Predict the structure.
Amino acid sequence: MVDSDSVPGEPDIAMWGASGSGKTAFLAALSIALNKARDAGWRLIGENPVSRTELAKLRDTLLQARTFPAPTEALTHYSWMIIGPAAQRRRWWWPWATHVAKAPKFKLDFLDLRGDLYAESESNIDKKALVDSLVKSRGLIYMFDPDREARVGDAFKHLDAALHEVAGRMLVGDEFEDGKLPHHIAVCITKYDDPKVLRIAMEEGFAERDPGDELRIPRVPEERVPDFFRLLCREAHDHNAEMILDLIEAFFHRDRIKYFVTSSVGLFIDEDLGRFDPDDFLNVIDNANGGLTIRGAVRPMNVMEPVIWLGRMIRPGAMRSRRWDG
Ligand SMILES: Nc1nc2c(ncn2[C@@H]2O[C@H](COP(=O)(O)OP(=O)(O)OP(=O)(O)O)[C@@H](O)[C@H]2O)c(=O)[nH]1
Ligand SMILES: [Mg+2]
């Protein structure tokens, strides 16, 4: 069941981020992440033949071709659906028997676009589609690529331009009287596996290894991610980047923002060693053709989590009184 307030063809969740920030790779990793969680009952399916083909193509790029999807050129619309685990329930008047409750479902309509659209000053059809998707959705995934920020430093410019366009469309009327955008926003720091990012996390004391995790992968604890994000912004090429967090908090309700540290491919783990090795964790290496090859298993980190968090926030009705434990 999709909530009745979901309008077909309009995105529940829209994503944006600068060119090359990792948007398409994130979508490719989403089905792998959900598949890995299938014991917990999660699945991602394409709603129509085109979306199913695209889903398989994206997944195969990472898993079979062992490389990344090509940069996005044409606007691509993915209609997917996440189906969660159905809970065993007991009826109070018949407590000795269990029955299977309906599985939680929500629709993921993603519009994948070239990230450099905002660099274009004149409006065009794709740019209009991007702003439309941000306006119509209620969940946003914002991709922040710390490596690109350290080199190019244009995230602030892109974010500022996008938010002002969306605010110009949504906040001038009386609908949102509190002056904030109504969306929930998952701010995703991408490419955590990149040594430039992981090293900062380890050297600055943000990465912790949970003794309960048999792979001993260093992770940034949830409550420290906003500070890690602020640090990465401070290290950026563009000094305006420091204002990104303030910009996000100025436009969105504080309790509707959540920060995630993500990697589409995850860290390399030597099968023989069986756990994270700080001297050998590169999972992306240059190949002989001048491209990139994914070296070991694809282990997405925090790819499913932001999507499920958004699903839970924007479609609470679809999950009411059901098990939804991500
Ligand atoms: N190390 C590492 N590199 C990544 C990851 N995700 C993406 N990349 C790199 O970033 C490049 C761009 O990723 P895309 O997913 O195509 O980025 P995009 O935001 O869709 O880019 P456009 O479509 O051009 O806007 C990839 O070709 C990879 O080289 C990741 O999780 N880890
Ligand atoms: Mg892309």
User: Anything to note?
Assistant: The chain has one domain: 13-319.
